[in-house]
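Sample intake — Scarecrow-like protein 3
Collected from: Urochloa decumbens
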Amino acid sequence: MYMPLMQDQGPADHLAQLGPVLYTCAAHVTEGSFEKTDISLSQIKSLTSIVDGPLQRLSLIIADSLARRLLCPVQGFSGALIHPSDYFEQPILQTARCNLANLSPYISTGFATINRAILEAMENEKVVHIVDLSCSTSHPRQWIKLLREFHGRQGGPPEVRLTVVHDNNGFMADMRSLLSKEADIFKIPFQFNPVIGRLETLDFNNLRNTLNIKYGEAVAISCSLQMHRLLVVDDNMSCSGIGQLQKMANIAQLKKMASSVYSPTSTLNYPQTPSPQCQTPKLLASFLNAIRALKPNIMLVMEQDANHNALLFCDRFVEALNYYAALFDSLHAVAGANPQRADERARVERMILGEEIKNILVCEGVHRHERHERLSQWAMHMNRSGFDHVPLSFRAIWEGNQKLMSFGLNGCQNKVENDCLLLCWGSTHLYSISAWRPHKGSSSGSREHMLVQPQHQII
């Protein structure tokens, strides 16, 4: 259960009303009632106008998403809605992406943990090829820090080759320049290899050539906040009999939630939805098979730890409401400690997180690509595809914890689960970090689920 950590006590009653009204509005949207939805949207607008807070800003984004979901089935309306890519200029969008990496304690922590795991896996290697598949999450700061760590390595630095997949030419040029200058300062042999594109558009049948992987070199793969985009499947059943049953289940569940969320001490109050136990989608399986064939020394995966991949809309709605309430609250705390960064926080909420929320709540089938899953589900996908779990070392976890604590926010928490790292705001899991390598004794990738008995430890 998520409890807002940074809200003032004054508007607590109004905040307590927001949860039920949001659930009620979602139920009316699922019913297809324009009149009832209009009443709920007016109530949301009234409640969010009391004070400017993280939950109020989130509620406005959710209200916008619900209105769009109501309009989408209406003939002609969906085509009239403007896609974000058409009204966000690329330089502004790229700035917002960098703002998220700079503001978020969790992404900085992920970079620190991933770097330490790479350093340990490459301890005695002379030629190191790092493949950054993080795309829009890629940030030169992560690799500048790693180059400095390689410089201080006992025995001298290795030759470093860095391949980065990204869809922005200008960003790649700037990244190449920054990293090349850093490598020159520390006299590290360095090669930068840009690959223009997105993870889901790469040719997995020719990945070795695409990423310029040479046989015999040590390979480390870093993939942050991107693999969930490979979970896309055509699961839109709205026109079938099953779809009608799903609609009825959505309405019943949302109305139940609206009537049960009443506690003034907690705006959001509902049980966690378990991740679905389903087969690994073909696109993800194809990607992981291609990665396994590269035989990397280590693969680091950072993902949003949430179940936004549920088939039922009501499950996605309650999960998204809880998850993003915690995430908005954490960014609100960062900006509160650094008031000059309020504009950066607002840009991230609108342009990055807001568009994620819209995709989760508005889109269905192949158009829904923000399909975040929990750590246990990723472990299942990785094991099925022939990967063994690599425990994060004590030092990697410690360095991540030190980075997280450096932000000075009481709500930031680390948890260790089966030697993987969970990053939390209060009790709400936000991100997971795990390490993997191809299973040496099997090429089929068919293995049992590894994380059987999760054990929690707060650092």
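Post-analysis note: The longest strand covers residues 428-438.
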